[in-house]
From TrEMBL:
Keyword check for Transmembrane helix: no
Peptidase M24 C-terminal domain mapped to chain residues: 540-599
EC number: 3.4.11.9
Source organism of the structure: Sphingorhabdus rigui
UniProt key word Acyltransferase: no
Domain Creatinase N-terminal: 7-138
Peptidase M24 domain mapped to chain residues: 310-530
Designated name of the protein: Xaa-Pro aminopeptidase
Amino acid sequence: MSTYEARLTALRVQLKKDQLDGFVVPICDEHMSEYVGDYAQRLGWLTGFGGSAGSAVVLSEEAAIFTDGRYTLQVREQVDGNNWQYVGVPQTSISDWLKEHTPAGARIGYDPWVHTKGWVESATVALKAKGAELVAVKSNPIDAVWADQPGKSDAKLMVHEDRFAGQSSAEKRAAVAEWLTANALDSTVISALDSVAWLLNVRGSDVANTPVALSFVLAHADGTADLFVAPEKVGDDVRAHLGNAVRLRTPEEFVPALKAMNGKRIAVDPDRAVAAIFGALKDGGATIVEARDPTILPKAVKNHVEQAGHRAAQARDGAALSRFLHWMSETAHKGGLDELSAAARLKSFRQDTGMLHDLSFDTISATGPNGAHCHYKVDEKSNRAIEPNSIYLVDSGGQYLDGTTDVTRTIWVGPGQPTAEMKDRFTRVLKGHIALALAVFPEGTRGAQLDTMARAALWQAGLDYAHGTGHGVGSFLAVHEGPQRIGKFSGGQAGTDEPLQAGMFLSNEPGYYKAGEYGIRIENLVLVEEREIAGAEGRYFGFETLTFAPIDKTLVDVSLLNGEELRWWNDYHAKVLSIIAPQLDGDALAWAHEACAPLS
């Protein structure tokens, strides 16, 4: 098992024992999480792929790995093309590939605890067309051959105090109960980890960088709830916080509880609940009503306490990032730094605030050609020296009790000057960032309608980027949070068709990536806010920028900026200075004044 080829061979041997001709392996857990615990990193263990989104299909004689445009370069560097075919999504779906490659009569296995009901239905139809069968396994065959598979975390839950949440769990459960009653429903399954955390005002540390705990909830129309969680994870403080209205039950009781819902009307979110949940409810005789998790929208629309907390978190985070940028300006051009050491130093500046709970994701610390990987993850193998006269991109964030941050800055490492091309590309990304920051839009506007504003300057030069422009952000929760999103509309892609509402957090992060050379991204977080416009016919919205740290003026071609864009730059940096200057001193403060000086 020392090589990925050996692991692939071992899985095929196991599949043969299980009388299967193939198996589908997503990056997923029982909660449809984007980021999963170590025990659920089955795709990474099997293939070596380190991205956060992807799937694989293993057949007896061939295998394929499926990734989107964010990982086109990364998957080819990490996964052996001698053993795996590279397939791009959404251009080719897993179901389409199975339909083309599966032999007639084959039995293709899947784990119903890591796939949605919709995927199962689609794959079943595709395989049936080939005379093949999709088979639910009782235990995941990868677990059978993964000898040193990590166990599930036993970390304790923690109370997320109302002074940070802005609303009690009882109030949130009452709102869910009201929704259930209005829709003639008895209960709803809450299976997304961040939804459980938000509803009960608890947090955990079972998933790296995301403060959630492995658990399920059944919320009922009377305002009570059942929390299915390992007993050793719950301390007296959490028991007292939850009170008598939340019954504590073991994870082993979850499926029997679903099967006991005979005659009940149960709401289940088809996008966030795995197929196994639907199967258990169906077996028990429940009437299943497919509906979006009722916590999703309230969680996305932040209350005033959460908004205030986020501003406070952003102020200290912006100062920490500014200290790092100052340090880089003094040291990077001398040589001796690499991506790992830079990321470690940035983390130390955040830790110096005394309020950092965790990073909000693995820092993307990327220099030169590594920056061209949109979602690059540095490790000992990929680590590159930060060379003088190069572009360095750092995408990072922190988890604080009062807010979750996410910010990207792209800087020039001297002592020389960037090329005209670099400045042109950076400035076009900046123009897109400013266009989105200044956007004003009517009620009902979707993220897909705004996306073109961030890309227009790049498109004019025949350029683009292969990732979304903006994602939702949680409140001391997931750094990627739906349902809102800014990106190209691509037939059902989650979030791009969600109307933006006041109170939603989003990122604003256009970019440009030149394969083999460099990457550029500028990211701030923004808050959707209502705008008062004299004579407006209807409600209009815009964005309040929440992230404050200097953007590198060395990479700006001022001749490409119009008057409005220059005003935005100068106003933004004046605000940056007003927020970070009181937190800085000495050389760092002097640097901040220079970094925030107006462009002319």
